[in-house]
Design a protein that fits this description.
This protein is α+β, with helices and mostly antiparallel strands. About 30% of the residues lie in helices and about 25% in strands. It has a single domain (about 1-140, about 190-335), classed as (Glycosyl)asparaginase (Glutamine Phosphoribosylpyrophosphate, subunit 1, domain 1, 4-Layer Sandwich). The protein has helices spanning about 1-10, 30-40, 45-60, 105-115, 120-130, 140-155, 250-255, 260-270, 275-285; strands spanning about 20-25, 80-85, 90-100, 120, 165, 175, 200-205, 210-215, 235-240, 245-250, 295-300, 305-310, 315-325, 330-335. Helix 1 packs across helix 9 (about 275-285) and helix 3 runs antiparallel to helix 4 (about 105-115). The relative contact order is 0.18. Cleaves the GlcNAc-Asn bond which joins oligosaccharides to the peptide of asparagine-linked glycoproteins.
């Protein structure tokens, strides 16, 4: 049955023209693509390319969903998540709930190269970063303060609490458990750009693969929340014997299915990247039919693809590609299904 499904997807999404080296990333973050491509063109490694591309988005605060000054949590604080993976060695470095440090992808690489660990979180991750020479800076901006103030003024809606109720003397919080809570409509998916990520895959001319992510998470998240971005196999995955993938969207749902890992393993069995992406999305869709999410995929021969789930307000997904054929970042899109 699996073989039949794989063949069907491959026929629906046949191989396109391959070209190496290659950079592919989520969303229309052109400057990030250009930064990564420039690294590859100057002889840098795929790890350098992914780090530089994601760092560019951190500096430019892409869509307000990457880097400092965006997605304040319930306390009004912006925290960052990032991951980088070496597809040659299968080493991973990741940080989550990072405070005070703007260059999250840089700290993730430091975790990979300066420790035997894979993931550091919270205040301890921030202290590690400071010990590694990363400057401590305020991640709050006027924009993030305004977002937080407006949220407080709306009785802390939308939020991500359930089966709890606030102190009746307060507009919101502190929250206490409640056995049953009346069903109420939450605006969780009202803004599909409230929880984006830059996810990037780079493949050089010899087929070496790296992947990475960077995000400031989800607007109004419960403090301490970690999404899919810094989780290996969920936010991103790279294996130089098969390819790389990265996901974006509702990380609380997507991380449960390790879509990036699944897509890479499907490519290993011969699936075209577009088919692998679609099958990874289909697996999630069976359980959460209207979830917001997308995935990009690239194999070691330079073929690439993407897929997204059709959900309210989200019918098409945009991503960027740069390869030796285009020699410049090109905006691509795929219709959601």
């Amino acid at each position: 049955m699996f073989t039949s499904l794989l063949c069907t997807f491959t026929l629906l999404f046949p191989l396109g023209h391959a070209s190496l080296p290659l950079v592919i990333n989520t969303w229309a973050f052109k400057n990030a693509t250009a930064a990564a491509w420039s690294v590859l063109q100057s002889g840098g490694s795929v790890l350098d390319a992914v780090q530089e591309g994601c760092a560019r988005c951190e500096v430019e605060q892409c869509d307000g969903t990457v880097g400092y000054g965006g997605s304040p949590d319930e306390s009004g604080e912006t925290t960052l998540d990032a991951l980088i993976m070496n597809g040659d060695t299968m080493e991973v470095g990741a940080v989550a709930d990072l405070r005070r440090i703007k260059n999250a992808i840089g700290v993730a690489r430091a975790v990979m190269e300066r420790t035997d660990h894979t993931l550091l979180v919270g205040e301890s991750a921030s202290l590690f970063a400071e010990n590694m020479g990363f400057p401590a800076e305020d991640l709050t901006t006027n924009k993030s303060v305004n977002i937080f103030s407006q949220w407080l003024g709306s009785n802390c809606q939308p939020n991500y609490r359930k089966n709890v109720f606030p102190d009746p003397s307060q507009h919101c919080g502190p929250y206490k458990p409640r056995a049953m809570l009346e069903e109420r409509e939450r605006a969780r998916h009202a803004n599909v750009h409230s929880h984006d990520t830059i996810g990037m895959v780079a493949v050089d001319g010899d087929g070496h693969v790296a992947a990475g992510t960077s995000t400031n998470g989800m607007n109004h998240k419960v403090p301490g929340r970690v999404g899919d971005s810094p989780i290996v196999g969920a936010g991103a995955y790279a294996d130089s014997s098969a390819g790389g993938a990265s996901a974006t969207g509702d990380g609380d749902i997507m991380m449960r299915f390790l879509p990036s890992y699944l897509a890479v393993e499907l490519m290993r069995t011969g699936a075209d990247p577009s088919a692998a992406c679609k099958m990874a999305i289909t697996r999630i869709k069976r359980h959460y039919s209207e979830f917001f999410g997308a995935i990009i995929c690239a194999n070691t021969t330079g073929h690439y693809g993407a897929a997204c789930n059709k959900s309210p307000g989200f019918s098409q997904f945009h991503f960027m590609v740069s390869n030796s054929e285009s020699d410049a970042p090109l905006l691509k899109s795929v219709d959601c299904f």
